[in-house]
Amino acid sequence: MDSSYNSPSTKPLFRGTQIVWYLLGLIEVLLAFRFVLKLLGANPAAGFTSFIYGVTYPFAAPFLTVFRSSQIVQGSVFEWTTLLAMLVYGIIAWGIIKLFMMGRTVSTPEAAAKLDDQEK
Q1: Each residue of 3-29: pLDDT tens digit?
Q2: What is the Cα–Cα distance from 101 to 95, expressed in whole angstroms?
Q3: CB–CB of 31/82 below 8 Å?
Q4: Can you tell me whether residue 1 is helix, strand or coil?
Q5: Which pTM does this prediction carry?
Q6: Cα–Cα–Cα angle for 11, 13, 16, nearest 5°?
Q7: What b/e sequence results for 58-92 when a residue is b if at least 16 CB atoms lie within 10 Å of its CB, and e otherwise?
Q8: Which residues pair with 77 in a beta bridge?
Q9: Could you say which DSSP state residue 69 is in?
Q10: C-beta contacts of 98-101 below 8 A and 24+ residues apart
Q11: Would you say the C-alpha torsion 37, 42, 48, 53 has a positive or negative sign?
């Protein structure tokens, strides 16, 4: 077994990656609810719909003016910006995980092998 798996930093890194993936999953599910509710023309005054729109607004807000929303039928909106937000948050989470993994302890032979692979 590789000694890097017994490093004191392994468990905190694992927990950190779990937290990032959990938060991403939560945000993605909420944004997916937002997308479907808008697509189906849900009543914004309904409690659940209002809750989802309120909770997801801070995550969707930076993207709301990137694209126009496409009105499909009266009240039904295809919100491209929500899909963009989901993609961007996924990429950000992936980047954070990669950054965490850079802090992982690596044995000298493993580092040498990875450097050799990068040269190819």
Answers
A1: 455 666 677 888 888 999 999 999 999
A2: 10
A3: yes
A4: coil
A5: 0.78
A6: 110
A7: ebbeebeeeeeeeeeeeeebebebbebbbeebeee
A8: 71
A9: P
A10: 100/13, 100/16, 100/17, 100/20, 101/13, 101/17
A11: positive
